[in-house]
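Incident log, entry 3
Record: HEBP2 protein (245 residues)
Problem: checksum mismatch between cached and fresh output.
Input:
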Amino acid sequence: LEESPDSAYHSHGSSLEEEAAERTDDEEQERLLSYWQSVGRGHQVDVPRDMAEPIQQLTRNNNPQERQTIPFTLIQRKEKLGDLLYEKRQYGKAKWACIKMKEKQYEQSICLGFMKLMRYICEQNSSGLYLGITIPIVTIVHTDESQSAMMQSVTVAYYLPEVLQDEPPHPFDSDIIIEEWPSTIVYSRSFRGITNEDSIMREISVLAAILESPELCLQDTFIIAGYTNPAAANRHNEIWFLQRP
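Fresh output:
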């Protein structure tokens, strides 16, 4: 009996078209991995081979319309001559996947922290599912009280999508902790480019000078909110001051 194309397909595994698709899939995975590895080298970070799949999955799912923005209530916009100086926002109580990093340089910490969170987002969790990207990815940084030096220890955090807030999937990586953050008022100012110790300290002093009452905010804890992945050159970032509880 002559096999129908369908039965041949089932008995011989994948079709030629599928094999070709898999080949281009592998080539694309290699291309993305080598791109991230070259970016990593610029930040003195090794991007291991086991990141190939999470990188590809994240890239595929990285359509702007599929990213979920962290919800907030806008309280006030402060402008001067048509330029936005800062926004005052309220973020509600929510659960975040957090990882503490303490590399020599800030850029190394956020790249390595982001890679660990990517694995968690890309199926390395108790649900076995791709969790979806939320923006911004945030980093908590600390300075001394006089805001003249930045501490090495930072926390990189991923806001869990609305549908997962009640029951967040457990990370396989024991370094990732699920934390519930209280409702917080933040003062947010936008800036572009790379984020490193110098640019962060500069943005902290700029926002401190603009705010009417900077003393109402924490003096040694700030958040860098990143809307673009750490591999991008001209990133869209924000500096957040946190109002004292």
